[in-house]
Design brief:
The protein is built from seven helices and 19 strands. By secondary structure, it is of the alpha/beta class.
């Protein structure tokens, strides 16, 4: 018996465990394979804000989380002595068409109105490409956008840091190789493949793509599964560049400088695939695009060498309407879901849930959490 049981050992599961541990709750986290073996162990690590126009509660939630993440990471780095590779580096977006500049100028004003806290402001600057000599004018004929809110971190370093933080709490237990086969929220019970049954007061589902099968079992009948995997391929390159350079986003391609002479490039987005765990010609095509784009030319010097490649399967919902969580949840039991890059909307609402008091479920990272107000929206679309 534990107060909080978390299914899934990715970023969302680990961070939820940190929040529970800080609240003094006895916590148990179960991971079917190894900690961080799913989409959370990717390469990009780009923390991208929503566009500053058409502001709403969803965008404000994301903004607050992105701002607070800096302090959260710093505190965890101090506590563990490890680095998550975090840097608020900003983002540069070349403008290749004249109408894009007009749109960007409007967003510059929107950011001035919306991207601020009482103590700090962030900006969406629009400037000419040749100002300062980088990026080159031919790479951005109608200028560039430079946003100062975007940031990056090293996903695998973050996972290592979160795990180290949890190991400092005596009331937290992490278990790898523990496959959950069924959930019974009404009784606060889960069953494992090895025959064990575990009980808890509060259950958090953070199993990424695998969450969908559990969610479907707790919802009203659906015509089709509520979601499935989207495959992404990315590469990590060796390149001798300044790690303080901003992220480059051009034509759907992310170029993310990291520490220690590494640059992540990605990623593909594949709804249909046969080999979920291998790279293929789509990654080759992505790297060829990188070599032709401003991000590749900006590296300069010798051609970067591939340091590593990675595929990941991130969750993607297929049905957003009429998704309701089973209303038989009683007493203090509360079922939450925190899964990868699920893009929830506010028309997806629980039918009957009550979150425990003073328990911060929405970790400042990507994912969703089912709570009293329905689905909150992901922070990190990359």
């Amino acid at each position: 018996m534990c107060e909080v049981l978390i299914v899934g050992g990715g970023v969302m599961g680990l961070w939820a465990a940190v929040m529970a541990a800080r609240a003094g709750l006895t916590t148990r986290l179960l991971e079917r394979r190894l900690i961080g073996s799913g989409a959370s162990g990717g390469l990009l690590g780009a923390l991208m804000p929503h566009m500053p126009d058409r502001w709403n509660d969803k965008k404000q939630f994301q903004f607050d989380a992105l701002v607070s993440l800096e302090g959260e990471v710093a505190a965890l780095e101090t506590a563990t002595g490890l680095s998550a590779g975090y840097r608020r580096c900003g983002r540069v977006m070349p403008l290749g068409k004249p109408h894009l500049r007009e749109i960007a100028l409007g967003r510059e004003q929107d950011a001035a109105q919306n991207w601020h806290t009482p103590a700090r402001r962030f900006h969406w600057h629009v400037r000419d490409a040749d100002a300062g000599g980088w990026p080159a004018a031919d790479a951005a004929p109608f200028g560039v956008v430079h946003d100062t809110l975007a940031a990056r971190l090293a996903p695998r370093s973050l996972l290592e840091m979160l795990r180290a933080a949890l190991e400092q709490f005596p009331h937290v237990r992490l278990e790898e190789g523990a496959e959950v086969v069924s959930l019974d929220p009404a009784r606060g019970r889960i069953s494992l493949a090895d025959g064990r049954d575990l009980t808890c007061d509060r259950l958090i589902l953070a199993a990424g793509v695998e969450s969908f099968s559990f969610i479907d079992g707790l919802t009203e009948p659906l015509r089709a599964p509520s979601g499935g995997a989207v495959k992404g391929q990315a590469a990590l390159l060796r390149a001798d560049i300044d790690p303080a350079l901003p992220i480059i986003f051009a034509d759907g391609l992310y170029v993310v400088p990291h520490e220690s002479g590494q640059v992540a490039v990605g990623s593909t987005s594949e709804n249909r695939f046969e080999e979920p765990y291998s790279t293929d010609g789509q990654l080759d095509a992505l790297l060829a695009r990188f070599a032709r784009r401003p991000g590749g030319r900006a590296l300069g010097g010798p051609a970067p060498q591939i340091y590593g490649a990675r595929t990941h399967g991130r969750p993607s919902p297929r049905s957003r309407k009429g998704l309701r969580v089973d209303g038989r949840i009683q007493g203090e039991l509360w079922t939450g879901a925190c899964s990868g890059a699920i893009r929830g909307r506010r028309d997806c609402r629980p039918s009957s849930q009550r979150a425990p008091p003073n328990f911060p479920m929405c970790a400042p990272y990507r994912g969703i959490a089912i709570g009293e107000a329905g689905f909150t929206t992901p922070l990190w679309p990359a």
